[in-house]
Design a protein that fits this description.
Layout (H helix, E strand, L loop, with lengths): L1 H6 L20 H10 L2 E7 L5 H4 L5 E5 L4 E8 L4 E5 L10 E3 L1 H5 L2 E10 L3 H4 L5 H9 L2 H35 L2 H49 L3 H6 L2 H42 L1 H20 L1 H27 L1 H7 L2 H54 L6 H42 L20 E8 L9 E8 L4 E6 L5 H8 L7 E6 L2 E2 L5 H6 L1 E4 L8 E2 H5 L8 H11 L2 H5 L8 E2 L8 H13 L5 E5 L7 H15 L3 E5 L11 E6 L2 E6 L1 H7 L1 H10 L13 H6 L3
Helix pairs in contact: 6-10, 7-8, 7-10, 7-15, 8-10, 10-11, 10-12, 10-15, 11-14, 11-15, 12-14, 12-15, 14-15, 19-21, 23-24
Length: 719
Amino acid sequence: MMAAARYYGLELDSADFRLGQGETFPTAAALSLWAQNSGMWSRGLRLRWRHMFSVAGAGPVVLLFNDGSAGLLIGANAETKTVFIRDPRAPEAEPPIPVDEMRLAEVWSGEVVLLRAERSQEKADPPFTLRWLASVVLKEKKHLRDLLVASLAISVLTILPPLLVMQTVDRVMVHHSYSTLFLIAVILATMVLYETLLGFARRLIILVVGIRTDATLSLQVFSRLIRLPLDYFERHPAGETMYKVSQVNQVRQFITGKLMTTILDLITLAVLLPFLFWLNATLAWIVVVCATIIMLIILAFLRPIRVVFGKVITAETLKQAALGETIFGIKTVKALAIEPQRKALWDEKTAEVGKWRMELGKLSNWPQTLVTPIERFMYMGTILVGAYLALSDEGGFQIGSMFAFMMLSQRVSQPLVGLARLIEEWEEVGASMGQAGEVLNRPLEVDAASGGLRPKFAGAVSYEDVTFTYAGTKIPALDRVSFSVPAGTTLGLVGRSGSGKSTITRLLQGINREYSGFLKIDGADLREINLRHLRSSFGVVLQENFLFRGTIRDNILSGRPGLTLEDAIRAARLAGAEEFIERMPNGYETWVEEGSPNLSGGQRQRLAIARALITDPRILILDEATSALDPESEALVNANLKRIARGRTMVIVTHRLSSLVDCDQILVLDKGKVIDIGTHSALLEKCAIYRTLWNQQNRHMFSEGQGHAALAPTLLQGN
């Protein structure tokens, strides 16, 4: 696999591979998943010999042999009926081995893994629109074909019962023919049975199409959502995002539900409408004209309904944003006892939604009211006019024909009215699609780094005249920042709040890429490096870290699921987390719930440090990583910093200058500019800002014996 990936200029990390449960050898599915997670297109398949000649030549194909080894299919010769296989462990200069079908069948059962570089982003991520959604449904060609056949068969079966009823009234009742009546009854029973079976099959096919479409949508939506830049999530409430994305389900239900049903009913209409005109043109025109008037009434109300529905969507979005904010900030709500204020906000948003839904309901009530008498006339009018035509015997229209027309007219008018109502619902669906599109059609992170370099990092970092300004502000967060850090160096970042410390680490992680100047790692421009490769080579510990639901071991290994418990223990020991994990009831198998209520802040922080170290990153970023630790835990982590930093570049952002005394270099920032860089002792002598910060935090050293005089610097320490 790794040799095949190199053919496309990509490097697979063996530590990312994970065997399935109970598997002894790597399977095609597991290897394919490994490649996909590393940014490649891959499929695990089972091929026959004849397929080998069609897949050979497009690139190396991985053949999985029965003994657990593998080979690379790199070519084929159709004339000699041989394929060329290379041993991935053999030297590059060694020629491939020609193998025929018989020899290959002795060691190979057909499992292969196809690989290629990831498809272009334009093809992989088309705009999230109704047209794209419809194309997803249309991919189910086989099921849709069966659906069409079933609908046509049901349409034909729909015509026959009215015809038989017409014959029963006009022939059987007139001539008192019991044998004909019995025959008609048998035919009707047979038709009902077939119609029931076909209806069951049609509903089952619609269900299958809906479920498959749901699965495709879920994969696409999550894939797009998780690749949105962090900046989007920082600027939009989680509740708002969740509500907008959930609108996709409403659109899917419309397409695979009412839209598909109406289209299938229109197929029935195309079959039945000519038959209605054959029975009686006058009555058929009554049905068509009434349905057209209904459609025009609904169309007239579309624009005002669209405006009010937009107000409903806006109100619902704000309501969900308030709900999400309350849930995610429930600890703060409880701590500050502001439940009444949050409830008042919720009441306000709920009232706003109710107000606009009432307006929408009132407006929607008018077309319903105007349409009702026309619908009733369509049904009752055809009966009255049909009875008049039958009594006057105009055009040979008989009672049986009237009964047949009444039965069929309801089947015809229903899709016509349904089509009119479909247009009304189309506006709501369009608005829902627009809401989802506001989130899912935003530029994705991968757009800025599709492909890209995947170098092996040593850890040298350099900023060359870097300037960056956050969106919506005019003052630069970083202003012509320049400095360099050799590989293996420990760099401390200090400065007052808002000086740009965290911005430097954000740019280094590729979170923000709209900067001027050059940011390089080992001489390679950061914007040229593949984004996933960049971040997987980093270890990042934040001030507040999120732990996933699962065991402690799962959380530590989340960055490298292919590693073992021994690796987790090693990382925990390095982070100073081993001692408290071993005191847990189930050790590394202790379950962590959402929000990790069974762990203290310091314990969560040490687990986050262990999680960052599990990947053995070349660059480790600690952004206020020890701020939540108690003095004992902080001392333990600081004591391990030298071991943690060995062989890697480490960037430490902190307000506690005592943690940076042993750093190789300390960068002092103020208002986005570099003030100075040097060792702790050098900065104390030449940098006034650093000296001031140091004195503020260590004033207690000069105030011993003055009682509570040391409380002030303790407060300043949190600035």
